[in-house]
């Protein structure tokens, strides 16, 4: 069986509304091989895998398993074909033991026998070298142990094709090494393994072949042994596309925000931000590039006073008084009371930047409602502001009293950015401000950011589209695994250079095969 | 439709017959029409059930419901009407009390206990200070005591929720039982005979004065004022705005620098304090007695009133009227037609089912799957 094709996708296409998530993707996975799927954020990797695992159904195209056409309309169907997926977010019942979770939902018409199941779990663990305690409760487990349970769960169901969605994102380097050892043993046992990952060194260390996706399109599949980082990065990021964003030279930039040695660890004790230092200057757009979840959110939120830092300083140079203040461990309110005009367009627009069920006027008040000593609200100024933003930014809405939840994504973002700019900030941070927006709305946002830059605002722009970063920003900071892997001049750098920096993480796994 | 190898029948069984879509903005007119239709339908359905179960004339049942709530021609003093208004006032007061908490998405299931502890504080004042201090001063002390007791019962769970993330639903629920047991204890102390009520013969002082000869009028006026105040507080003050933001999303609240802990505690203090006032009105204004079932589940009914009115205090007047009228009317039906008391519960249940159920049709549109039918026709 080894070497024969286990699963084949032919011309698979999936649309979500008008968004093309996968377009005409064809792919083969052999028995006894590890295939890595490589691609930027939003390149459609997870969507493609979800179609194999029965979570989505393709709009067009066919899937063949062992040469026969397969109808995979539910995860149950997928199990029937021996396909098992280990999701990025675990799907386990906390108060159950490992064994109970593993046998949950199996209908094999045999008697419910935990003892027998536990023995079978032990046998599987023995075979592949898993470290698992069948009677341990999930809530007592570390992230790595939970992942092991997920893998054993699909093996228990007799999976021959395993899909792992970014399995190393939550693991320490040692745990990653252990996982890779297990995966190699499974491959040698003839199983097909598909692994989604962003980390280039892991692709090179683990996989037999690499399939590359770019913006929903299938690019190519190459033998890992015949390729290298540079070639893979080039295929992943593609040719540079010109967007014609109007970019001016920064006018007498002054250091506005100086970030020094920021440290932050999460609840699991893993470093989310490691020794981050950079300077944002007035009249300049500083881009932040990186794979999603590399610490961008934490970085911006800690500057905005929403996260607790374990170390470092955030110094703000007041343009009026020319005094320097440290913003670290200040609440958003304290930051404002210091006279720091910091605006922040967060990634989660309706969950953080705005209140979805409130109307546009009330959302305008979020920043300013405290003004004045009266206990009552003044809705007149927010109303004027709302009407001004609706007109200036061409927000499509029935009225200013429409709940923002009812607006389309682009209009929601116009309301949010409009509000943040209206307070004439000296620092403006925007996280993925054009995500999910159509072309016209995106250009409106670029124009607004550029205008702020020309007014002397220090703009920090976290983006995912490298073409945009290259044309909009003046400097680009590349972040990988919570560490700054490089700072480049946006006018002279290339997509490949940024792509390489993005996938470079410290403390990587050895390249031995 | 390229996957021709897919068996057609299999494909079709996956398409449901009904298609449910979320409505966009619903016009006021449509929403009112749907609600009126629901009430009419519920009355018709009640009529059918009545005929089937009892054989009585449904029209006379409806008349009885009306008379039960508003009185009949013989009731020249309008005693029933006043009693109904008094019931409406108390339920409305408790509903107003829980509203700030629910608007903040704080699941305050402890209004019952907060009301009872307000009752207890009032009763203790009447019991210990009655006849010692003049009545107007006593009433003032009762007010302060009942509000403080309610605030304490409200703030305790809020404090634990704010600082340690305890589950407020369980916490407030359990506080109810503490309040009940404390009242039981007071009953034993105040009345050695072992009665389960301490009545007006013991709590002789601190009764609310009758206005224009109507003993419930003061209660009703106080609740009217509270309604206006809560409406203004929620809609036009900065505090009210903060409550809405915290209820919408704690992340948004943190993002704009609202101290979420402070808002949670402050709001529950208000919620508990208003419940305490409801307790004061119950003991000092209405019953002049205390028992552990004095709140009679209204702490929970209030939650329904508040949600049905979408937290709008003015709408709450309507929802309270509806519930109280139904309750008093159907009780009258049971006694007049000699039916088991459960029958009135059945009628109330049916009507509420329709009223709450119609909210679904306001939010969603239900359509038959036309595409499915079309496919079937083609296949045929």
Chart the SSEs and their pairings.
The complex is a heterodimer of chains A (513) and B (380).
Chain A: E1 5-16, E2 19-30, E3 33-38, H1 45-52, E4 60-65, E5 68-70, H2 75-80, E6 83-86, H3 98-103, H4 114-128, H5 143-156, E7 161-165, H6 173-188, E8 192-196, H7 200-206, E9 209-214, E10 217-223, H8 229-237, E11 255-265, E12 271-281, E13 284-289, H9 296-303, E14 311-317, E15 324-326, H10 332-337, E16 342-345, H11 349-353, H12 360-365, H13 380-392, H14 409-422, E17 427-431, H15 439-454, E18 458-462, H16 466-472, E19 475-480, E20 483-489, H17 495-502
Parallel strand pairs in A: 3-8, 3-9, 6-7, 7-8, 13-18, 13-19, 16-17, 17-18
Antiparallel strand pairs in A: 1-2, 1-4, 4-5, 9-10, 11-12, 11-14, 14-15, 19-20
Helix pairs in contact in A: 8-17, 13-14, 14-15
Chain B: H1 8-13, E1 18-22, H2 28-54, H3 58-70, H4 79-103, H5 111-129, H6 135-164, H7 168-190, H8 217-236, H9 238-248, H10 250-255, H11 260-287, H12 298-308, H13 313-336, H14 342-363, E2 364-368, H15 370-379
Antiparallel strand pairs in B: 1-2
